[in-house]
Amino acid sequence: MARKQTIPIIGGSAKDKAISVNNQFTQNMMLAKKSFGAKNEVVLESIPGRRELGSAGDGACRTKKLLPWKGLLYGVFGTKLVSISDAYVVTEIGTLNSTIDTVIMARGRDYLFIVDGTDGYTYNGTTFAAVSDADFPGVSAGSAPTHCSYIDGAFIVHDPSNDNFYRSDAENPTSWNALSFEAASVSPDAVLANVATESILYILGETTTQPYYNDGNPDFPYTVYLSGVAEVGIAAKYSVAESDDGIFFLATTPEGGLFVYRMIGTEGMVISGDEQDIQFLNLTTYDNAVGFIYKQAGKSFYVLQFPSDGLTFVYNITMQSWENRSTYGSNWDAGGHGVINNKNIVGSISDAKFYLLDLSHYSDGNYELIRTRRTQVIHSNNQNINYDEFIVDFDPGVGIASGQGEDPQCLLRYSNDSGGSWSSWLQAGIGKQGEYSARARFTKLGSGRNRVWEIKVSAPVNVVIKGAFAVITVLDD
Predict the structure, then answer these.
(1) CB atoms within 10 A of CB 189
(2) Do residues 246 and 308 share a domain?
(3) Is 359 helix (H, G, I), strand (E, B) or coil?
(4) 371-415: per-residue pLDDT in tens?
(5) Secondary structure (DSSP) of 97-144
(6) Is the pLDDT assigned to residue 140 strictly greater than 70?
(7) Are residues 234 and 356 both part of a single domain?
């Protein structure tokens, strides 16, 4: 006898080594929790589109965190340090000597400080210059620090040739004292990155993460939190990102493994699951991964990009789930994030453009914003199931007045072997403008034991998936 069955279509990405166990995929959509009493407690929504605002510098964005400072937003595009006003007017400030690699910036009261692994640079609102102090760490070893932080009125860098980290003179990154340093004190660990948040300085090495606090010592004021030291090292130095949600980074241990780690204060936890960790280990290269955090509309996201493989993983911090993002089949073309005038701005990792992350914009720069959801494996005690009807509950009536999105369509395909092979694509409408009773309905869908459904929408309209159900008959074996 035919009956209606709810299909668990809402979820994140979780591809297991054995796809027959789990082969879920959510790309360019994000989980969102609704208030008590809403028709649907959790839905899938479109990610923000990227609306082009202009061009900056002479190349792709190299700054994973664009910094607001004195009313402007600062970043490095190509070789140029630029400022962006709230009217999106770009001003070139200075030229870096390097042309590649990620750039890290920190802001103080009087200076912006920039490091790129080749040199250090400062900008005080008037003068841009390379750091010339002979005591600036790393110069004697032929390479400058790759990371910098600002905490307690001074700038922090590490020497990439050893396990020392240094503090600048007060509010002055042009001036360094060779004796104002500390070694990673718990373990003689090569320091790969440093980051500061919530009054804690984190020193991240190959095998340990060591948090420090200011103890007021006039010689060097940082002492390690012994209880917070973790035998967890950073596997990709530019993957670290910080916010009030904690610090996040791609991590490893002396015993092996590759996972995403989160520290809040002095407490750490693994936030990636087996499915993500397996995918990380299968990447071509992971040590050049880049991470950043952004917040929008009450949600927080840790974005982790793998440029060698063209993949972007996103940890939805608010929903504690993993999702994926892509710009037309490759890495999500968002490099570096900053906020000015409460607007979320991202640079491009492919050219000199910068964009507004706009929740009311439904294209990805010059590309379609392709939103995809693949369900978990649907089964009934491994019995064969006949599918008479499949309905996706979209927010209907979202078509625009004319053009490509006038009659928005969704595509559906299915697999009876958990995603090893697929049916041809089927098509149904979401609903033209004002058609609020429309449903995406598909019929005569055959039978299978381990059915996986995949939905795709590329129309430039607001896409919200609220749920799905099927009319099924469980067949006798």
Answers:
(1) 20
(2) yes
(3) coil
(4) 999 999 988 777 889 999 999 999 999 999 888 899 999 999 999
(5) S--SS-BEEEE-SS-EEEE-SS-EEEE-SS-EEE---TTSTTGGGT--
(6) no
(7) yes
Instruction: Give the pLDDT confidence of 45-93 residue by residue, as tens digits.
Output: 999 999 999 999 999 999 999 999 999 999 999 999 999 999 999 999 9
Pairing state between β 191-197 and 371-374 = unpaired
138 and 123 share one domain: yes
CA dist 362 and 405 (Å) reads 10
Residue 279 host element (H or E): helix 274-281
Say how far apart CA 61 and CA 67 lie, in whole Å.
13
Do 53 and 40 belong to one domain? no
Domain containing residue 357: CATH number: 2.130.10.10
Across the chain, what does the average pLDDT equal? 94
Judgement on whether residues 348 and 433 belong to the same structural domain of the protein:
no
Q: Are residues 193 and 326 in the same domain?
A: yes
Residue ranges making up the domain that contains 84: 49-366
Beta pairing, strands 3-6 & 409-415: unpaired
**pTM of the predicted protein model:** 0.96
Provide the strand spans (E) within 279-352.
Answer: 290-296, 299-306, 311-316, 321-327, 330-331, 335-340, 343-347
338 and 302 in one domain? yes
- The structure tokens 């799905």 sit at 468
- Residue 372 tokens, joined: 């995809």
